[in-house]
Amino acid sequence: MAQKTLPKYCPGCNNLLKVQRLYCDSCETNVEGLYELPLLARLDNESQKFIISFVKNSGSLKKMAKELGMSYPTVRNMLNEIIEKVDRFESIQNDESSNSQKE
Amino acid sequence: MKKWLINPFRYVSGWPALIAGIAGLLIMTAVSFYSKTHLDGVMDVHFGKEGSFVLFLKENLLTWISLIIAYGAIGLMITGRSFRFIDLAGYTLLMRLPLLIVVFFPFVFGGTNVVDHILYLLLDIGEPVQISAMDVVWFIIMIILTIVFVFWSIIWGYFAFKTLFHTSGLKALALFFITILLAELIVKLSIYFVFSDMALFPV
After folding, report:
1. Cβ contacts (< 8 Å) between A77 and chain B: which residues?
2. What's the CATH number for A39-102?
3. Could you tell me how far CA B184 lies from the centroid of its own chain?
4. Is residue A69 less than 8 Å (CB to CB) from chain B?
5. What ipTM was assigned to the predicted interfaces of this complex?
6. What is the DSSP letter of B132?
7. Residues A1-41: pLDDT tens digits?
8. CA of A68: which chain B residue's CA is closest?
9. Which DSSP state fits A73?
10. Smallest CA–CA distance from A76 into chain B, residue
């Protein structure tokens, strides 16, 4: 069976989804609440794979370039794009938390 | 293979790019010496005028150094992030590899007698040369193909620029053209003011 992909955005309004229910497969416990998706989980699958590979390669872009068969600047640009995405998510998160504090 | 021909900078960098570029430069210099093809600028190809091996080497080196200066200056200006000098040096050489084909053209198409004819007619340089209609046809084909390969080299230059400085879209395109014009200006001003012995025509 193909692995399911965690949906991150609402198919109706395209807003970021939140976690409302967690389930234990072993004892069938349900946990209900309202949780934000962790920052890394918000990234697309390609970016997540890149980060895992980055950690496994001890943060060496040279090793990653070799592993991916790409040039060093290309891999560095991929990392820069992820940094930009994380920055964007963080600023959205900060805006949301400052808005909720005002309320 | 097709991806490599369009954008090799996605796959190669560092020492391999620099070594391939230097090898290309040396081969290009050697062949251009025998085919009398001058590459004295980023977008310049001139056929026909004889010169010493050192002159052809100096033309290629001057163009390379000008590209490094122009790319480096614009790159530092637009990116807060740093880039590796070895990539800058390698990519500015590698982007000129399509011209390696161009320096063989005079062997394939002949055509330099048409250049000699034009030089004699317009600038009164050299001796009068007899040319046939076929000479002109081959010369036109050579010029069209030369334009194609120069354009290819410019496309590679654009991809090198994008990869080095992580830019895209209209901004990348505009900055790239400024960079190319700056490099061309550096070459021409250097020849005019500093290396006037390299000028193909009296300055």
Report:
1. 163, 166
2. 1.10.10
3. 10
4. yes
5. 0.81
6. -
7. 677 888 888 999 988 899 999 999 999 999 999 998 888 88
8. B11
9. H
10. B166
